[in-house]
Structures are given as structure tokens and as C-alpha cells.
Amino acid sequence: MNVVTTRSEQFAETGFLIFDHPVISDALLKGAQAGIRAIRQGAYDTGIAPVNFATSSDQHTLQRISKVHVANFAIRQLISESGVGKLASEILRAKQIKLWGSQLYYKPPGKGITGNVGWHRDSQHIDCFEGDIIIAWIALDTILEQSGCLKYITASHRQDSFPTPAGGAFQNIEQESHRLTTENPNYQWEEVNVLLPAGGVSFHHWDLIHGSGPNLTNKPRIGLSLGLASDNLRIKENTWDFGFKAIINDSFYCPIIYG
Ligand SMILES: O=C(O)CCC(=O)C(=O)O
């Protein structure tokens, strides 16, 4: 008997879904790649700057640039026209998908552990939201294991899985996975490498444990992470809102990209 599982069921079970074929057209991809080059050189065709979080004062180490979708029109176009919103709506079974944030992860080669993103759940770093939230991670170039690919821990979005890790800033991912698995022998730590062609996309649950290792290739590893949510997204009362209250209903900062 064939058991057919929907995208939504698969996602509910594992906490992620990987589309390891290009789902984004070459034209949209090329436009966004040029947009990223411009942003890294400090040129914003919308006239609005993104927010730069280099992990040190060294611009050549891992760079996280936030709100890139407000800084460049081609990146906005990729987000709204690529079909990523429709895929998210299928996974969440939602009529509408809103973009509430974006982050460019630029990981140069040859930086060893300083290029790592520590094990974390997105919900531990941005704890002001409730609702159905999903992250889409778009590969801007081919992503191999040696590139320092994103790594997911299967089913770690569940309430009864591992306790929350040390967070994205704790870059020694081997030490942290050793600690988590030793202290929690009853849970299974299964790492899945997110290997993508340029234009491929993976989706993960807001509570899924994930991180990434060093870039051992000779090319930068470039990924665009999108914070998406269905129309039940709410900002919690009495928590720091990271400035979201001011922009969540502003269609320039938080556009509806599907529905
Ligand atoms: O790109 C990475 O290595 C980390 C990305 C990430 O943490 C995210 O998209 O939530």
C-alpha cells in the first residue's frame, strides 16, 4: 500500500523540508545576486540601509545582514515572485503568507570555526512572536557540505526533544552537540546536511535546532534566510518586540508575499 504524505505532514514530522532542485528562475536569481553584491558594497537602490551584524569588526568573517529586502528592489522581487510564498502556504496550510524579516548569511572561505553558526532555535533569539512561523533558506549559489551548509536536527522542533542549545553565537558546534547528546541520551541527534543547487530552497520550523559549520571551499557560501508567517502571527504582550510592532503592518517592511 502506498502511503502518501503531504508536504505539510512531512514538515510536521521532521520540522523541515528541502527542495534540492532550483525552484527560483535564473533571472530572479541573477538579479538578487547582483543586489547582494551591491548591498555588500554599501549601495541600496531603495535608498534604505539594511542592518549589518558582522560577527566581529572584521568584515571578512561571517556576516549577517538583516532586512536586505528593504534595501534592494531585485531582492524584493525574488522574494515576492519566486513562488517561495506559495510553497510556505502549502506547508503551513495557510491562505496568506507574510514576510516579517530577511537575513543574508555571507560565509567567506578559510575562516574556520569563526564562520560557524552555533546550534540554535530561531524562537530562542526572537521570542516575541506567536503563530505559525516558518523560515525559508534560499541558496544563492551551490551549497555543498564543504561550503559550511546549513544542518538540521531531525524532529528537534518538538516539545519533547532536546533542550534549547547555547545559541547561534556559540560557534563550537561539535562541542555543543557533544554536550547536548551526552546530557540527553534518550533523544536521537540526527544531523541532516542541507545541500542545495543555486535557486534551491529549504524550509524549517521556527523551533527546529539548526546551525552550520566551516566553509572549507574557496568560494563564499551565500544564503538568504526569510522569516515568514501565516495570518495568525501575533506579537506577544510584555516582551521586547525588536521594533516589530512599528513595522508588522507596513507593507514595505512586512509585505504579504502570497494570498
Ligand atoms: O546560514 C546559516 O548558516 C544559518 C541560517 C539560520 O540560522 C537561519 O536561517 O535561521
Largest β sheet strand count, sense and barrel closure = 8 strands, antiparallel
Order of SSEs, N→C?
HEHEEHHEEHEEEHEEEEEHE
Q: Structural class given helices, strands, pairing?
A: alpha+beta
* Architecture per CATH nomenclature, i.e. the level-2 architecture: Sandwich
What's the CATH H-level superfamily name?
q2cbj1_9rhob like domain
Radius of gyration: 18 Å
Give me the number of helical elements.
Answer: 7
Q: Per the principal axes of the C-alpha atoms, what is the gross shape?
A: globular
Number of beta-strand segments: 14
Mean pLDDT: 95
The low-confidence parts are: none
Brief characterization of the structure:
This protein is an alpha+beta fold and 259 residues long.
